[in-house]
Protein: Transglutaminase-like putative cysteine protease
Organism: Janibacter alkaliphilus
Amino acid sequence: MTDAAIVEGRPTSRRARVGATFAYATTDVRSALLSFAVAGSHEIVEEHLLVHAAGREVTPRELAGDHGTRLHVLDEVGTGWLEVTYEAIVDITVPIGDPTGREIDFDRWVFTRPSRYAESDRLAPMAARTFPGLTGVPLVEAVGRWVFENFSYVSGSSRGTDGAVETLLAGQGVCRDYAHVVVSLLRALGVPARLVSVYAPGLSPMDFHAVAEAWVDGSWHIVDATRMAPRETLVRIATGRDTADTAFLTTTGGLTTFDRQRVHASLVEGEMPEDDHESLVRLA
């Protein structure tokens, strides 16, 4: 049983169709890890997965990760083409302003530490100067608003190895860069924060999307400093310290070359909401 989004005291029913199709040329690739399936925290109505590797249809092994993350492993990918098609229909379950999530001590400590792309230790002095005296919800809202107002969203402007420090110096980036800065600043100020990869109905241009989550008011709440898609429509894929934990494709051995990718996410039931960025939104 899941909770529906609550707007003006009434349950709001929304259903989304999401998915991705992509292809990579592979040479002597031993194995691949895919992270694109809707998280188990959502109610999945329908789901279809088709994978071809080196000219043959293969069935990946599913691994259950933390926070509902579902990973798919392919062994002996080989040489040829890795082609994946994934489709799902999902009941979106986004409680708004409902601080009923359980605090888990282990997670709170993990998501307060610095990580590969979220160098909160290096940004602590800057964070303290920029947000003096703020705590709790006002602090989380201020960080999200500051990143939105001080950065430019520029496709292709960052490298896959860039972390929050490089993004701050550049003053621009894409969704993962915005999320890394938010996560880093919040951790630097003692607020547990993590990164979530999502499908995002309403996003333009359409792609996989990344947002931050902050532990505030007794549960995890979304902070999307890009403000490019309504938070109430987001569909969780994977959750981790930063994009090192949420990459949609990881391979071992050999060579992998990108060919094509298409991501889609749209509502098939319910109206597209208008996001109120002064409210708290919780992701299923």
